[in-house]
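SEQUENCE-TO-STRUCTURE ENTRY
===========================

Subject: a protein chain together with a token-level encoding of how that chain folds.

Sequence line: the amino acid chain in single-letter code, read from start to end.

Question of interest: how does this chain fold, as expressed in backbone structure tokens?
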Amino acid sequence: MARTIIRDVRLFDGTGATPRDRSTVVVDDERIAWCGRQEDAPAAAGADAAAMIDGAGRTLLPGLIDAHAHLFAGRGQPPFTAERAEVRALLDAITHARQCLEAGVTAVRDLGARWGASAVDLAAAIARGELSGPEIVAAARFIAPSGGYMEGMAREAATPDEARTAAEEQVAAGARVLKLIASPVPPRDAPRLASDSFGVEAMRAVAEVAHTAGLRVTAHAHGLAGARDAVAAGVDCIEHGYRLDQATVDEMAARGVWLVPTLVAMEASQAPNWAPGRPDEAARRARERWEAAVAAVQTARMAGVQVAAGTDCFGIVPVTALWREVRLLVEEGGYTPAAALYAATGAAAALLGIPDHTGTVAPRMAADLVLLEGNALSDLPDPARIVAVWRRGVRVR
């Protein structure tokens, strides 16, 4: 048995509880064996420890969980042939998985790629210990209205029946969550679609398939119409939600619908238009989009909507952006540091359906842990301050 002891540390346990100073955590192999006040630690705890870590002046927290990631985003695009593109994307995804661990991210929800089955296979390979990476809750391919997303990226559906079939295909492929495109995003230079929403009936069909299979369904929704219709259709989560209004967030709160705001992706996508020398109108539109996204998060917070942290990496931002997302939830969204960190740990685990084994620091939970220099609650966490990362009890950084 390999035993690691982290002693005299400030412990944020991922439950939302107040951090506890002078704590000790004992890890045996893959799991946490004991945690509590340092003075209450079992007398024999350190007798056969392979590693004794001094936590003085440091904060220990659960491994972070990115509730909105795209591990297969990257160079797997034309001019590669289709076959080479998939191989290239898989190699990139394996690299991205390792980068997640180095950044202290020990679980992700992969929300769709052109090669959805490969995401499911990568998740399985990591679960078997064949590759190093975070736990992956994979959506396989996402489901979009015909002409409603970048060409070839989504499994398209023109009718509710086709949407139902598309959802059944993802379940059969091994998806652990289903994702639909509630707010269509037509390819560049394509004609605008007749509706700004996938439609309630089509989305309801996807939700019914997911729930029958015991899975959750989440909806990409940049615009208000798509978000409003997705909530009415019975989805479990809204991704982005940059244009939510009071009525929609009230309905989300009443139905228990989650929000993953991805503020860091909005910040990154709009920031170039704020740079000096950009046309005034471009800067104005960028600022308006950003302010709308921030207002939506604030409205959701005040309405009591459940929030989990996600980034939209690796398409727009790197995986280290999850730390920035936590900061934005505090600085822009109005969350306390503890609430923002909870959104990236225990809350995210609950959304992903994995709170029975990760997301919190407690006996019998997986030893997915991050050790940071300083006080992560008074001085917001920064990936540059990572001292160590453990995934299932194995130190990976």
Q: What stands out?
A: The two ends are 21 Å apart (CA to CA). The chain has eleven helices and 17 strands. The longest strand covers residues 3-11.
